[in-house]
């Protein structure tokens, strides 16, 4: 659907007209978030029991798959028998406030593709024809990478981090009783951070197009990037090799994919430049 708007020629509009059009795009984007938030609010049992609180239970899908993987190697060390913490709500309106907050976050996540499409509809007519041609499919790729990042954060990063933090103790006499706000904040922060991190190929695409980045620069700093990824993986995961690899390998692959994107864009631009010089 965004293809239709990319192909349209930009029309001359006054500043007030631009503001009016932007207002309607924002209204539709916010409306989509509100609609999904209301749906999430009404589906309380599914949202909290099956989604938000699922990583806090031992029957979570990621824990089961990790256990099966360990058993296939003849090891039971990867099986999680218990999650060493309890959740509490210490404020009178704590659960209601968290219900509303979680509904808003899920509404934002579900409506993101449409909301981004609305913003893109406003921005794209102001681009030159060549810029619009270069950015074809932007809505699709941004949306897909956002969803993949959310899934990676939810099924990989969050359960590993939650399980590690739940079992970490400075002294056996201290019992982990986490506040609901702390748990939800950790979960949503990890998921949304991964969703943003997965936008790396798109960011690299536009930076390469703008001449601000090149595959040579990314290759030059590849080792630095890998070290940063390993450090981040070591911080948010338990101190074992398997957990760190589960986090680090996909991020390294994402960086390598970004190098390929940058290389493809550079070759494409050089080819077009040579063709123009030949004519």
From TrEMBL:
It is found in: Cell membrane; Membrane. One of its GO terms (biological process) is intracellular protein transmembrane transport. Keywords: Cell membrane, Membrane, Protein transport, Translocation, Transmembrane, Transmembrane helix, Transport. The keyword Transmembrane helix applies. The chain crosses the membrane at residues 26-43, 96-117, 138-162, 182-208, 220-239, 245-265. One of its GO terms (molecular function) is proton motive force dependent protein transmembrane transporter activity. The keyword RNA-binding does not apply. Its main location: membrane. It is a multi-pass membrane protein. InterPro entries: TatC. GO terms for cellular component: TAT protein transport complex. It holds the Pfam family TatC. Coiled coil: none annotated. HAMAP family: TatC. Forms a complex with TatA. Belongs to the TatC family. Part of the twin-arginine translocation (Tat) system that transports large folded proteins containing a characteristic twin-arginine motif in their signal peptide across membranes. This is Sec-independent protein translocase protein TatC. It comes from Pontibacter fetidus. The gene is tatC.
């Amino acid at each position: 659907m965004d293809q239709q708007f990319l192909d349209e020629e930009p029309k001359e509009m006054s500043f007030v007209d631009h503001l009016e059009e932007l207002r309607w795009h924002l209204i539709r984007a916010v409306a989509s978030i509100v609609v999904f938030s209301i749906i999430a609010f009404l589906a309380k049992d599914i949202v909290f029991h099956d989604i938000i609180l699922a990583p806090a239970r031992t029957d979570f899908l990621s824990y089961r798959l990790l256990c099966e993987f360990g058993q296939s190697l003849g090891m039971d060390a990867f099986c999680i028998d218990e999650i060493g913490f309890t959740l509490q709500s210490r404020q009178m309106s704590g659960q209601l406030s968290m219900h509303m907050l979680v509904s808003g976050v899920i509404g934002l996540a579900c409506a993101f593709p449409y909301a981004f499409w609305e913003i893109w509809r406003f921005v794209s007519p102001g681009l030159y024809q060549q810029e619009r041609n270069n950015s074809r499919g932007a809505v699709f790729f941004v949306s897909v990478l956002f969803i993949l990042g959310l899934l990676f954060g939810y099924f990989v990063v969050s359960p590993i981090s939650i399980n590690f933090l739940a079992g970490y103790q400075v002294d056996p006499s201290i019992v982990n009783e986490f506040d609901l706000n702390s748990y939800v904040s950790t979960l949503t922060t990890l998921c949304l951070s991964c969703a943003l991190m997965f936008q790396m190929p798109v960011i690299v695409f536009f930076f390469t197009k703008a001449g601000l980045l090149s595959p040579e620069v990314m290759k030059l700093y590849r080792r630095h990037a890998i070290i940063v990824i390993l450090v981040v993986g070591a911080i948010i995961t338990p101190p074992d090799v398997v957990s760190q690899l589960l986090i680090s390998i996909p991020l390294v692959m994402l960086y390598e994919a970004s190098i390929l994107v940058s290389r493809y864009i550079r070759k494409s631009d050089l080819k077009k430049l040579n063709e123009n010089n030949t004519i």
